[in-house]
Amino acid sequence: MKMNLTDITTIKSLLETADTGFKKSLGQNFLINPAVPKKIAASLKRDGENPPNVLEIGPGIGTLTVELSAVAGRVAAVEIDGTLMPILEKTLAGCPNVKVINADILKTDIGKLAQEEFGGGEFSVCANLPYYITSPILMYLLEGDAKPREIIIMVQKEVAQRLCSSPGSAEYGALTAAAAWFGECERLFAVSAGNFLPKPKVDSEVIRITPFKSPPFKVSSGGTLRRVIRGAFARRRKTLVNSITAEFPNIEKERFVKILSAMGLPADIRGERLSVERFAEMTLYIDGEIPL
Ligand code: SAM
After folding, report:
1. Does the model's pTM come out above 0.90?
2. Could you tell me which of 180, 185, 108 has the C-alpha nearest to residue 151?
3. CATH no. for residue 109?
4. Measuring from atom 8 of ligand 1, which residue has the nearest CA?
5. Helix %, strand %, coil % for the chain, to 5?
6. Per the domain annotation, does 292 fall within a domain?
7. Is residue 216 part of a domain?
8. Engineering a disulfide at 265: which of 110, 187, 260, 277 sits with its beta carbon 3.0 to 4.6 angstroms away?
9. Together in a domain, 54 and 167
10. Is the peptide bond prior to 130 cis by the omega test (within 30 degrees of 0)?
11. Nearest atom within ligand 1 for CA of residue 23
């Protein structure tokens, strides 16, 4: 018989039978409204006639996984919590296109996984992300070599605002700039705290990040861009010049002042005012591709 994985009694009994419980330290807030995982899975774009292959991060007890299985080609679900494995074996018994991998996503070679599970073909990422490591996971996906065709994730509402914010706004930060370099960010729909067990203190939103097919602006190297972004936001209250020199100890402060002047920017500008396009331009000066 098909289990209702969003039913509170069913969730509690599955955890109890496996002698485990909700682990707050792993961000375990499970969905209890059946409409939400359905809607997330329905947001995945098809690849022409082909159903998409999906990498799910943190399947929990398999609530979203079951819905993904229904619309996807293959699903690889990476779950860090070993105590959930016997539960997933039960709840995903009717989903032959799903493979569960007991691992930490931050220690998983996603390119290798995509090769093994999806034959090197395109894949999408879909997840109800654990709040405590949303940014590290997102950075890991954005900076990794394996580029998903889209990333559909549930994140804390404030993170959704941050990701889709514009330069100069209070929400704009390193994560925004990194995501803006990677692709286009869209807010899909809101999910209030009452849709989870245990109920978190914050509301959530589902967002989509669609990677650009080719880099939108010229950079000297992705590595320099990452350092520029990191440096620009590391010390938010300082000017860009003071903040960024700590990230590039071999470059003199005067050189950064000259770079800003060449870019037509004031010497006391703060990093939060610059778009990713301007950060990209800055890499060309730093690495000497545009002479000063
Ligand atoms: N997908 C389920 C749902 O929507 O109900 C559970 C989502 S819950 C918010 C996040 C899940 O991510 C948990 O199952 C947690 O154990 C798992 N998780 C936490 N850290 C992880 C990591 N580093 N790698 C893989 N999974 C992780």
Report:
1. yes
2. 185
3. 3.40.50.150
4. 28
5. 45, 15, 40
6. no
7. no
8. 260
9. yes
10. no
11. 16
pLDDT in tens, 248-272: 999 999 999 999 999 999 999 999 9
**Ligand 1 and 205: CB distance under 6 A:** no
Instruction: List, in order, residues 6 or more apart from 194 with CB less than 8 Å away.
Output: none
Q: What is the amino acid identity at position 51?
A: P
Q: Which atom of ligand 1 is nearest to the CA of 127?
A: 1
Determine the residue of 22, 32, 75, 81 to mutate for testing ligand 1's pocket, defined as the one with the most ligand atoms within 8 A of the Cβ atom.
81
> Do the domain assignments include residue 90?
yes
Distance 21 CA to ligand 1 centre (A): 13
Angstrom CA distances, 99 to 38, 65, 246, 284, stand at: 19, 10, 44, 43
Could you list the beta-strand ranges (E) of the chain: 30-31, 54-57, 75-79, 98-102, 124-128, 151-156, 183-191, 196-197, 204-211
**Domain-terminating residue out of 211, 246, 267:** 211
Last residue of a domain, which of 211, 237, 258? 211
- Helix axis angle, 174-182 to 134-143, nearest 10°: 30
On whether the CB atoms of residues 75 and 117 are closer than 8 A, the answer is no
- In angstroms, the CA 126 to CA 67 distance is 11
Ligand 1: atom nearest CA of 106 is 23
The 10s digit of each residue's pLDDT in 134-185 is: 999 999 998 888 999 999 999 999 999 999 999 999 999 999 999 999 999 9
Q: Could you tell me the residue range of the domain that residue 261 belongs to?
A: 222-286
